[in-house]
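Data card: per-record layout.
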Amino acid sequence: MTETIENIENLFHIPTSKFNDWAQLIFQFQQKNNPLFAEWHRLYPPTSNEFTFLPIAFFKSHTILSNNKPAEIIFSSSGTTGSVPSLHPVANLGIYEESFTKGFEKFYGPIENYCVIGLLPSYLERTGSSLVYMVDHFIKKGKLNSGFYLNEYETVVKIIQDNEYKNVPTLLLGVTFAMLEMIQSIPKQQWNHTIVMETGGMKGRGPEITREELQNQLTTHLGVQHVHSEYGMTELLSQAYSQKNGRFHCPPWMKICIQDPGDPKQWFGHEKTGRICIIDLANVYSCSFIATDDLGKTHEDGSFEVLGRIDFSDLRGCNQLVIN
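The structure for this 324-residue chain is written out next.
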Protein backbone atom coordinates (compact mmCIF):
# COMPACT_ATOMS: atom_id res chain seq x y z
CA MET A 1 0.00 0.00 0.00
CA THR A 2 1.30 3.45 -0.94
CA GLU A 3 0.75 5.69 2.08
CA THR A 4 1.22 9.16 0.64
CA ILE A 5 1.39 11.19 -2.56
CA GLU A 6 4.61 13.11 -3.05
CA ASN A 7 4.48 16.91 -3.13
CA ILE A 8 0.82 16.96 -2.09
CA GLU A 9 1.37 20.49 -0.78
CA ASN A 10 1.54 21.64 -4.42
CA LEU A 11 -2.12 20.69 -4.83
CA PHE A 12 -3.31 24.08 -3.58
CA HIS A 13 -1.28 26.00 -6.14
CA ILE A 14 -2.39 24.21 -9.31
CA PRO A 15 -3.61 26.08 -12.40
CA THR A 16 -6.92 24.98 -13.90
CA SER A 17 -5.05 23.31 -16.75
CA LYS A 18 -3.44 20.86 -14.31
CA PHE A 19 -6.65 19.77 -12.56
CA ASN A 20 -7.15 16.63 -14.63
CA ASP A 21 -3.53 15.52 -14.17
CA TRP A 22 -3.93 15.70 -10.40
CA ALA A 23 -7.35 14.04 -10.56
CA GLN A 24 -5.92 11.12 -12.53
CA LEU A 25 -3.04 10.75 -10.08
CA ILE A 26 -5.30 10.77 -7.03
CA PHE A 27 -7.87 8.48 -8.69
CA GLN A 28 -5.19 5.85 -9.34
CA PHE A 29 -3.82 6.29 -5.82
CA GLN A 30 -7.24 5.75 -4.27
CA GLN A 31 -7.96 2.75 -6.47
CA LYS A 32 -4.82 1.11 -5.09
CA ASN A 33 -5.31 2.12 -1.48
CA ASN A 34 -9.07 2.12 -0.89
CA PRO A 35 -10.61 -1.38 -1.27
CA LEU A 36 -14.18 -0.07 -1.08
CA PHE A 37 -13.62 2.50 -3.82
CA ALA A 38 -11.80 -0.08 -5.97
CA GLU A 39 -14.70 -2.53 -5.63
CA TRP A 40 -17.27 0.12 -6.47
CA HIS A 41 -15.21 1.03 -9.53
CA ARG A 42 -15.15 -2.65 -10.57
CA LEU A 43 -18.92 -3.01 -10.18
CA TYR A 44 -19.79 0.34 -11.73
CA PRO A 45 -17.03 1.32 -14.16
CA PRO A 46 -17.25 4.79 -15.72
CA THR A 47 -18.55 5.25 -19.25
CA SER A 48 -18.88 8.79 -20.57
CA ASN A 49 -17.10 10.18 -17.49
CA GLU A 50 -13.56 8.97 -16.86
CA PHE A 51 -14.02 8.70 -13.09
CA THR A 52 -16.18 6.58 -10.79
CA PHE A 53 -18.04 8.46 -8.05
CA LEU A 54 -18.68 6.79 -4.69
CA PRO A 55 -22.20 7.38 -3.30
CA ILE A 56 -22.00 9.62 -0.26
CA ALA A 57 -24.10 7.16 1.77
CA PHE A 58 -21.03 4.96 2.17
CA PHE A 59 -19.65 7.47 4.68
CA LYS A 60 -22.44 6.26 6.98
CA SER A 61 -21.67 2.56 6.70
CA HIS A 62 -17.94 2.19 5.93
CA THR A 63 -14.62 3.66 6.98
CA ILE A 64 -13.51 5.68 3.95
CA LEU A 65 -9.72 5.81 4.03
CA SER A 66 -7.04 5.68 1.35
CA ASN A 67 -4.23 5.62 3.86
CA ASN A 68 -3.35 3.04 6.52
CA LYS A 69 -2.25 5.67 9.02
CA PRO A 70 -4.62 6.36 11.96
CA ALA A 71 -6.94 9.31 11.50
CA GLU A 72 -5.90 12.52 13.23
CA ILE A 73 -9.58 13.41 13.67
CA ILE A 74 -12.95 11.96 12.67
CA PHE A 75 -15.53 14.51 11.59
CA SER A 76 -19.20 13.59 11.92
CA SER A 77 -22.39 15.00 10.45
CA SER A 78 -25.19 16.32 12.61
CA GLY A 79 -28.02 14.51 10.83
CA THR A 80 -31.48 14.33 12.36
CA THR A 81 -32.68 12.53 15.47
CA GLY A 82 -32.37 8.77 15.01
CA SER A 83 -30.42 8.99 11.76
CA VAL A 84 -27.00 7.47 11.16
CA PRO A 85 -24.30 10.16 10.97
CA SER A 86 -21.66 10.31 8.27
CA LEU A 87 -18.11 9.86 9.52
CA HIS A 88 -15.08 11.27 7.74
CA PRO A 89 -11.72 10.12 9.10
CA VAL A 90 -9.06 12.69 8.26
CA ALA A 91 -5.52 11.33 8.05
CA ASN A 92 -3.87 14.73 7.61
CA LEU A 93 -5.45 17.76 9.29
CA GLY A 94 -2.87 20.02 7.69
CA ILE A 95 -4.43 19.34 4.28
CA TYR A 96 -7.87 20.34 5.56
CA GLU A 97 -6.52 23.53 7.10
CA GLU A 98 -4.66 24.40 3.91
CA SER A 99 -7.76 23.70 1.83
CA PHE A 100 -10.23 25.84 3.79
CA THR A 101 -7.72 28.65 4.29
CA LYS A 102 -6.59 28.85 0.67
CA GLY A 103 -10.18 28.34 -0.54
CA PHE A 104 -11.52 31.24 1.52
CA GLU A 105 -8.61 33.51 0.57
CA LYS A 106 -9.22 32.92 -3.13
CA PHE A 107 -12.62 34.61 -2.89
CA TYR A 108 -12.29 36.94 0.10
CA GLY A 109 -8.62 37.62 0.80
CA PRO A 110 -6.71 36.88 4.03
CA ILE A 111 -8.88 35.85 6.96
CA GLU A 112 -6.67 38.02 9.17
CA ASN A 113 -8.37 41.06 7.61
CA TYR A 114 -11.73 40.19 9.22
CA CYS A 115 -13.40 40.16 12.57
CA VAL A 116 -14.97 36.68 12.41
CA ILE A 117 -18.25 36.07 14.21
CA GLY A 118 -19.70 32.56 14.31
CA LEU A 119 -23.42 31.90 14.87
CA LEU A 120 -23.35 28.10 14.93
CA PRO A 121 -25.36 27.00 17.99
CA SER A 122 -26.47 23.60 16.73
CA TYR A 123 -22.93 22.70 15.75
CA LEU A 124 -21.37 23.86 19.01
CA GLU A 125 -23.70 21.55 20.92
CA ARG A 126 -21.80 18.50 19.68
CA THR A 127 -18.27 17.43 18.89
CA GLY A 128 -16.83 16.43 15.54
CA SER A 129 -18.12 19.27 13.35
CA SER A 130 -15.81 20.09 10.45
CA LEU A 131 -17.59 23.45 10.11
CA VAL A 132 -16.86 24.41 13.73
CA TYR A 133 -13.24 23.33 13.25
CA MET A 134 -12.93 25.64 10.23
CA VAL A 135 -14.66 28.63 11.82
CA ASP A 136 -12.69 28.19 15.05
CA HIS A 137 -9.51 28.31 12.96
CA PHE A 138 -10.76 31.51 11.30
CA ILE A 139 -11.68 33.07 14.65
CA LYS A 140 -8.22 32.44 16.06
CA LYS A 141 -6.70 34.29 13.10
CA GLY A 142 -9.31 37.04 13.01
CA LYS A 143 -9.27 40.57 14.41
CA LEU A 144 -10.29 41.76 17.88
CA ASN A 145 -13.69 40.49 19.13
CA SER A 146 -13.69 37.49 16.79
CA GLY A 147 -15.50 34.59 18.44
CA PHE A 148 -18.49 32.27 18.68
CA TYR A 149 -21.61 34.03 19.91
CA LEU A 150 -24.59 31.81 20.69
CA ASN A 151 -27.71 33.84 21.45
CA GLU A 152 -25.88 37.09 22.18
CA TYR A 153 -27.41 38.99 19.29
CA GLU A 154 -27.22 42.41 20.96
CA THR A 155 -23.52 41.86 21.58
CA VAL A 156 -23.03 40.83 17.96
CA VAL A 157 -24.77 43.99 16.76
CA LYS A 158 -22.65 46.20 19.02
CA ILE A 159 -19.44 44.60 17.74
CA ILE A 160 -20.49 44.95 14.11
CA GLN A 161 -21.67 48.55 14.55
CA ASP A 162 -18.32 49.40 16.12
CA ASN A 163 -16.50 47.68 13.25
CA GLU A 164 -18.66 49.54 10.74
CA TYR A 165 -17.75 52.86 12.37
CA LYS A 166 -14.04 51.96 12.22
CA ASN A 167 -14.28 50.49 8.67
CA VAL A 168 -13.19 47.08 9.98
CA PRO A 169 -14.45 44.24 7.74
CA THR A 170 -16.59 41.67 9.54
CA LEU A 171 -17.43 38.12 8.49
CA LEU A 172 -20.71 37.04 10.12
CA LEU A 173 -21.06 33.33 9.43
CA GLY A 174 -23.94 31.22 10.70
CA VAL A 175 -26.64 28.63 10.18
CA THR A 176 -29.93 29.71 8.67
CA PHE A 177 -32.12 29.44 11.77
CA ALA A 178 -29.64 31.47 13.87
CA MET A 179 -29.61 34.22 11.25
CA LEU A 180 -33.41 34.31 11.24
CA GLU A 181 -33.59 34.35 15.04
CA MET A 182 -31.13 37.24 15.11
CA ILE A 183 -33.10 39.52 12.78
CA GLN A 184 -36.24 38.88 14.82
CA SER A 185 -34.55 40.27 17.94
CA ILE A 186 -32.59 43.27 16.64
CA PRO A 187 -33.60 46.53 14.92
CA LYS A 188 -32.90 47.07 11.24
CA GLN A 189 -29.26 47.67 10.37
CA GLN A 190 -27.20 49.23 7.61
CA TRP A 191 -23.98 47.25 7.21
CA ASN A 192 -21.54 48.32 4.52
CA HIS A 193 -18.39 46.53 5.66
CA THR A 194 -19.91 43.22 6.76
CA ILE A 195 -20.16 39.94 4.86
CA VAL A 196 -23.22 37.96 5.96
CA MET A 197 -22.64 34.30 5.07
CA GLU A 198 -25.12 31.48 5.69
CA THR A 199 -24.15 27.82 5.81
CA GLY A 200 -27.68 26.44 5.43
CA GLY A 201 -29.51 24.31 7.94
CA MET A 202 -32.82 24.63 9.72
CA LYS A 203 -32.45 21.19 11.34
CA GLY A 204 -36.01 21.06 12.62
CA ARG A 205 -35.78 24.54 14.17
CA GLY A 206 -38.65 25.89 12.10
CA PRO A 207 -40.32 25.72 8.69
CA GLU A 208 -37.95 25.33 5.76
CA ILE A 209 -37.28 28.53 3.87
CA THR A 210 -36.23 29.01 0.26
CA ARG A 211 -32.92 30.67 -0.54
CA GLU A 212 -34.77 33.55 -2.17
CA GLU A 213 -36.90 34.14 0.93
CA LEU A 214 -33.82 34.00 3.14
CA GLN A 215 -31.98 36.45 0.90
CA ASN A 216 -34.90 38.90 0.97
CA GLN A 217 -35.34 38.79 4.75
CA LEU A 218 -31.65 39.14 5.59
CA THR A 219 -30.76 41.79 3.02
CA THR A 220 -33.77 43.91 3.99
CA HIS A 221 -33.17 43.69 7.73
CA LEU A 222 -29.36 43.89 7.81
CA GLY A 223 -28.91 46.45 5.05
CA VAL A 224 -26.49 44.36 2.98
CA GLN A 225 -26.61 44.01 -0.81
CA HIS A 226 -26.19 40.23 -0.88
CA VAL A 227 -26.17 37.26 1.44
CA HIS A 228 -23.19 35.02 0.78
CA SER A 229 -23.32 31.24 1.12
CA GLU A 230 -20.84 28.46 1.89
CA TYR A 231 -21.28 24.99 0.37
CA GLY A 232 -19.49 22.29 2.29
CA MET A 233 -20.20 19.03 4.07
CA THR A 234 -18.68 16.57 6.49
CA GLU A 235 -17.55 14.32 3.65
CA LEU A 236 -15.54 17.08 1.92
CA LEU A 237 -12.39 18.96 2.85
CA SER A 238 -13.07 21.84 0.46
CA GLN A 239 -15.79 24.48 0.24
CA ALA A 240 -17.45 26.41 -2.57
CA TYR A 241 -18.70 29.96 -2.06
CA SER A 242 -21.57 32.01 -3.44
CA GLN A 243 -21.17 35.78 -3.30
CA LYS A 244 -24.57 36.51 -4.85
CA ASN A 245 -27.51 34.97 -6.73
CA GLY A 246 -26.99 31.51 -5.23
CA ARG A 247 -24.25 30.63 -7.72
CA PHE A 248 -21.32 28.83 -6.14
CA HIS A 249 -17.73 28.85 -7.35
CA CYS A 250 -15.14 26.20 -6.48
CA PRO A 251 -11.45 26.61 -5.67
CA PRO A 252 -9.10 25.22 -8.36
CA TRP A 253 -8.78 21.82 -6.65
CA MET A 254 -12.55 21.17 -6.61
CA LYS A 255 -14.89 20.45 -9.53
CA ILE A 256 -18.62 19.76 -10.00
CA CYS A 257 -20.10 17.20 -12.43
CA ILE A 258 -23.82 16.61 -12.98
CA GLN A 259 -25.08 13.03 -13.19
CA ASP A 260 -28.43 11.72 -14.36
CA PRO A 261 -30.15 10.73 -11.06
CA GLY A 262 -31.86 7.81 -12.78
CA ASP A 263 -28.82 6.50 -14.65
CA PRO A 264 -25.35 6.92 -13.08
CA LYS A 265 -23.73 6.17 -16.44
CA GLN A 266 -25.18 9.32 -18.00
CA TRP A 267 -23.79 12.82 -17.50
CA PHE A 268 -25.38 16.20 -18.18
CA GLY A 269 -23.91 19.35 -19.63
CA HIS A 270 -24.59 22.89 -18.43
CA GLU A 271 -28.05 24.15 -17.48
CA LYS A 272 -29.57 20.70 -16.90
CA THR A 273 -30.58 19.63 -13.40
CA GLY A 274 -29.16 16.40 -12.03
CA ARG A 275 -27.20 14.84 -9.20
CA ILE A 276 -24.22 16.86 -7.99
CA CYS A 277 -21.02 14.83 -8.09
CA ILE A 278 -17.90 16.37 -6.64
CA ILE A 279 -14.21 15.92 -7.27
CA ASP A 280 -12.49 17.23 -4.15
CA LEU A 281 -8.78 16.66 -4.56
CA ALA A 282 -8.18 17.66 -0.93
CA ASN A 283 -9.89 14.37 0.01
CA VAL A 284 -6.74 12.62 -1.17
CA TYR A 285 -6.60 10.26 1.84
CA SER A 286 -10.32 9.43 1.95
CA CYS A 287 -12.24 9.60 -1.36
CA SER A 288 -12.03 12.50 -3.81
CA PHE A 289 -14.87 11.35 -6.08
CA ILE A 290 -18.25 11.61 -4.38
CA ALA A 291 -21.82 11.37 -5.67
CA THR A 292 -23.85 13.55 -3.31
CA ASP A 293 -27.58 13.51 -2.60
CA ASP A 294 -27.96 17.10 -3.81
CA LEU A 295 -29.62 18.22 -7.03
CA GLY A 296 -28.12 21.06 -9.01
CA LYS A 297 -26.83 22.33 -12.31
CA THR A 298 -23.68 23.92 -13.68
CA HIS A 299 -23.27 27.05 -15.81
CA GLU A 300 -20.93 28.08 -18.60
CA ASP A 301 -19.01 30.45 -16.32
CA GLY A 302 -17.93 27.54 -14.09
CA SER A 303 -20.45 28.23 -11.34
CA PHE A 304 -23.10 25.83 -10.06
CA GLU A 305 -26.40 26.00 -8.19
CA VAL A 306 -27.85 23.73 -5.50
CA LEU A 307 -31.55 23.19 -6.21
CA GLY A 308 -32.69 20.57 -3.70
CA ARG A 309 -32.24 17.03 -2.50
CA ILE A 310 -32.68 13.67 -4.22
CA ASP A 311 -35.54 11.74 -2.64
CA PHE A 312 -33.95 8.31 -3.07
CA SER A 313 -30.78 8.71 -1.06
CA ASP A 314 -30.15 5.05 -0.25
CA LEU A 315 -28.92 3.32 -3.39
CA ARG A 316 -29.49 -0.42 -3.47
CA GLY A 317 -25.86 -1.00 -4.38
CA CYS A 318 -24.74 0.48 -1.08
CA ASN A 319 -26.65 -2.17 0.84
CA GLN A 320 -25.55 -5.01 -1.37
CA LEU A 321 -21.83 -4.27 -1.49
CA VAL A 322 -19.77 -6.11 1.12
CA ILE A 323 -16.01 -5.68 1.38
CA ASN A 324 -14.04 -8.23 3.35
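Known properties of this structure: The radius of gyration is 20 Å. Residues 96 and 237 are 5 Å apart (CA to CA).

See the next section for split statistics.
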